[in-house]
């Protein structure tokens, strides 16, 4: 029981940590809300659908709404294969370019765009006492269709149509996770680190959180995620508070 | 325990929903004010042939005044020769001792060893010209003449003394050069109306000069334009009006448009002074690119280019460049704007050179009048030296594309 009290304290600390850094540094912060429905079709085979919402700009701006479906199959007791598709509606950040003399050149305001994402994964698990370690390798392909958007050209002094070209991107995501099963405690803490590697190291994500299951049907997750952005992106690092719910049936 | 968990989850859901609902703000930079500045349209600068009300043109009577000799009224014009062009021929009436006039078809050559002589030109020819030799003052009274020379200048004064071009009241006079010039050894001919000496325009008529081979009007000395005249220059080749030793505009309605790459509407290699009148110059050409000995050189257009001091005291200057890298005003030295109105607009692209309403390599002093500069795709005003705006102005507005100073 004392351990559970500590967990509650950790939970509050996580929340606090997620909210606090925004005023201290230039990093951004936001929210991840997700809801998932998962059904066990037969032994080892699961299908699920999920919806997710993300925000940024210190929780003030919506960043993404996504819908997805996935299927997973346990090939071996320690090895799981999965695949899925996500339809992403992204609020792409604004982009400002400058001339050599640092005067403004172009401004492309933020805009909403669609992306299609496919992924396949292999997850290997290994339990050491009460801690389950897992390594997930995920190949992810995201396609952004062509889109016409507005762009303000400061040199021309006028709005122009700007074509965002369609393009695909391959990313290999490697995640190492540890999950604790604490006896007589309804909270299962977990922590993970994940690398997103394309041509460069795009992102590194650090996550700590807790999971809580009610009657094996309702799964809740509360976590803090810190995302380090690679040097090839102008996006800021971001602290995120995540809340996930899964309904299993 | 269950009750506590419910409270926690309820709290988290409320927090999450609250944060979700709060995330409806945009995180874009607020450029609305800057964009409003960038989307400003310039003042309109179009050719303007409307009549201009001007103060009486009072000739200088003080012989010690440096401008004394620029007044046609101060020379005796009792010797007069009439030349009437009529298609392929020219009729010469009257003779003056010491003045030889030779007409070959409608190409007339005058050698003047006499002194001040007035030549009254009239008629029309599409293959004619008139050329003057002799270092004597000349007065050309253009009395409704229309000369086109397919092989060179329509009027060519090889003398180094004053050439007074007087536009007879109410007349329309037209001069046009040819696309290619037939050159004579040791002689220049650089424009439809060319003079080795200074050219002084006066009168109350109209002169239209069309240049397809070289410049419209050019003097290897200076050019003075007096009130009352109406001059239109259209050059598809080189500069519109150009003078080696300066341009003085005391009045008149002057419209110049050029379309050649690198061409200037008006170009003064010497000091230029504007004391009155209304000058509208529009340059449509792009940057000229030349290669010599493997070295690439680029020359931008300008509605008005001045290589030395430009002084404006009165009058109206309306300048516009529409081509790539074109400048409304391109001054190599200082500009002293004391009064009148100066509107310079650059609307061109900046593929090779930067278009600017005004580019001034020296200092700029503004102490009166209406001063406006606009660049659609660059800074409205570039001053290499010092910018000095005298106190007392009514408006001082510096925006992304526009600079306005008004007294």
Question: Would you write up a description of this structure?
Answer:
- The complex is a heterodimer of chains A (249) and B (407).
- Chain A is 7% helix and 70% strand.
- Chain A contains 1 helix and 15 strands, in the order αβββββββββββββββ.
- In chain A, β2 (45-56) and β3 (61-76) form a beta hairpin.
- Chain B contains 2 helices and 35 strands.
- In chain B, the strands form 3 sheets. A 12-stranded mixed β-sheet of chain B has the order 3-4-6-8-11-14-17-20-24-26-29-32, with no helix packed on it. In chain B, strands 7-9-12-15-18-21-19-16-13-10 form a 10-stranded parallel barrel.
- Classes of the chains: A mainly beta (249), B mainly beta (407).
- The interface between A and B is medium-sized, with 34 and 28 residues.
Number of domains of chain A: 1
Widest sheet, order of strands of chain A: 1-2-3-4-7-8-11-12-13-14-15
Element-level helix/strand string of chain A:
HEEEEEEEEEEEEEEE
Shape of chain A: elongated
- Strand portion of chain B: over 45%
Helix content of chain A: under 10%
Query: For the record, what CATH class of chain A applies?
Result: Mainly Beta
The main sheet of chain B comes to: 12 strands, mixed
Labels describing this entry:
heterodimer, A: 249 residues, mainly beta, Porin, four-stranded antiparallel β-sheet, elongated, B: mainly beta
Topology diagram in text:
The complex is a heterodimer of chains A (249) and B (407).
Chain A lengths: L1 H18 L8 E15 L2 E12 L4 E16 L2 E14 L2 E4 L5 E5 L2 E18 L2 E14 L2 E7 L4 E7 L2 E14 L6 E11 L3 E14 L3 E12 L8 E11 L1
Parallel strand pairs in A: 1-15
Antiparallel strand pairs in A: 1-2, 2-3, 3-4, 4-7, 5-6, 6-9, 7-8, 8-11, 9-10, 11-12, 12-13, 13-14, 14-15
Chain B lengths: L1 H21 L9 H7 L41 E7 L2 E5 L5 E6 L1 E7 L4 E9 L2 E6 L4 E11 L6 E3 L5 E5 L4 E5 L14 E5 L3 E5 L2 E6 L3 E5 L2 E4 L4 E6 L5 E3 L2 E4 L3 E6 L5 E5 L3 E12 L4 E5 L2 E5 L2 E5 L3 E12 L5 E5 L3 E3 L3 E6 L9 E5 L3 E3 L3 E6 L5 E3 L3 E3 L5 E4 L3 E5 L1
Parallel strand pairs in B: 1-5, 4-6, 5-7, 6-8, 7-9, 7-10, 8-11, 9-12, 10-13, 11-14, 12-15, 13-16, 14-17, 15-18, 16-19, 17-20, 18-21, 19-21, 20-24, 21-25, 24-26, 25-27, 25-28, 26-29, 27-30, 28-31, 29-32, 30-33
Antiparallel strand pairs in B: 1-2, 3-4, 22-23, 31-35, 34-35
């Amino acid at each position: 029981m004392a351990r559970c009290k500590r967990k509650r304290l950790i939970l509050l600390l996580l929340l606090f940590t997620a909210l606090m850094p925004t005023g201290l540094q230039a990093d951004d912060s936001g929210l991840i809300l997700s809801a998932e429905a998962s059904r066990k079709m037969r032994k080892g085979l699961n299908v699920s659908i999920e919806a997710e919402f993300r925000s940024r700009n210190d929780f003030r701006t919506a960043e993404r709404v996504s819908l997805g479906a996935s299927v997973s199959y346990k090939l071996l007791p320690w090895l799981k294969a999965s695949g899925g598709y996500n339809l992403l509606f992204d609020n792409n950040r604004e982009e400002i370019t400058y001339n050599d003399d640092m005067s403004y050149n172009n401004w492309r305001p933020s805009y909403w765009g669609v992306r299609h994402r496919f992924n396949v994964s292999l997850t290997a698990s290994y339990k050491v006492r009460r801690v389950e370690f897992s390594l997930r390798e995920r190949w992810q392909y995201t396609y952004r269709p062509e889109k016409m958007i507005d762009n303000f050209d400061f040199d021309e002094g006028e709005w122009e149509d700007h074509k965002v070209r369609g393009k695909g991107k391959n990313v290999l995501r490697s995640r190492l996770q540890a999950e604790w099963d604490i006896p007589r405690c309804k909270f299962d803490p977990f922590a993970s680190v994940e690398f997103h590697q394309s041509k460069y190291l795009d992102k590194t994500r650090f996550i700590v959180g807790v999971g809580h299951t009610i009657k094996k049907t309702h799964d809740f997750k509360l976590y803090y995620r810190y995302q380090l952005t690679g040097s090839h992106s102008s996006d800021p690092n971001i602290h995120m508070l995540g809340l996930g719910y899964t309904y299993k049936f | 325990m269950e009750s506590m968990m419910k409270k926690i989850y309820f709290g988290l859901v409320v927090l999450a929903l609250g944060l979700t609902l709060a995330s409806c703000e945009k995180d874009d930079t607020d450029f609305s004010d800057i964009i409003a500045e960038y989307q400003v349209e310039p003042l309109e600068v179009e050719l303007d042939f409307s009549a201009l009300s001007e103060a009486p043109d009072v000739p200088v009577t003080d012989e010690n005044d440096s401008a004394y000799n620029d007044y046609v009224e101060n020379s005796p014009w009792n010797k007069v020769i009439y030349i009437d062009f009529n298609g392929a021929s020219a009729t010469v009436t009257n003779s003056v001792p010491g003045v030889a006039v030779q007409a070959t078809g409608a190409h007339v050559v005058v050698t003047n060893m006499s002194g001040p002589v007035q030549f009254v030109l009239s008629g029309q020819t599409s293959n004619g010209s008139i050329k003057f030799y002799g270092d004597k003052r000349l007065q050309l009274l253009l009395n409704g003449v229309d000369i086109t020379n397919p092989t060179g200048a329509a009027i060519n004064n090889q003398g180094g003394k004053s050439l007074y071009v007087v536009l007879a009241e109410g007349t329309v006079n037209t001069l046009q050069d040819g696309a290619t010039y037939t050159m004579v050894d040791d002689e220049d001919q650089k424009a439809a109306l060319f003079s080795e000496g200074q050219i002084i325009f006066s009168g109350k008529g109209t002169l239209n000069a069309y240049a397809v081979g070289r410049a419209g009007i050019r003097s290897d000395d200076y050019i003075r334009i007096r009130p009352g005249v109406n001059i239109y220059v259209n050059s598809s080749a080189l500069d519109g009006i150009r003078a080696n030793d300066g341009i003085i505009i005391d009045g008149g309605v002057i419209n110049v448009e050029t379309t050649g790459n690198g061409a200037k509407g008006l170009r003064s290699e010497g000091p230029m002074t504007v004391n009155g009148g209304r000058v509208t110059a529009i340059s449509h050409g792009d940057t000229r690119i030349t290669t010599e000995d493997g070295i690439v050189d680029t020359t931008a257009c300008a509605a008005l280019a001045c290589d030395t001091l430009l002084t404006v005291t009165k009058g109206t200057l309306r300048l516009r460049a529409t081509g790539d890298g074109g400048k409304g005003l391109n001054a190599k030295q200082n500009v002293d704007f004391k009064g009148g109105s100066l509107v310079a607009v650059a609307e061109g692209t900046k593929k090779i050179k930067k278009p600017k309403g005004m580019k001034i390599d020296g200092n700029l002093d503004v102490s009166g009048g209406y001063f406006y500069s606009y660049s659609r795709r660059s800074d409205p005003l570039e001053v290499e030296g010092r910018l000095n705006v005298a106190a007392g102005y009514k408006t001082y507005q510096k925006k992304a594309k526009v600079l306005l100073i008004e007294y």
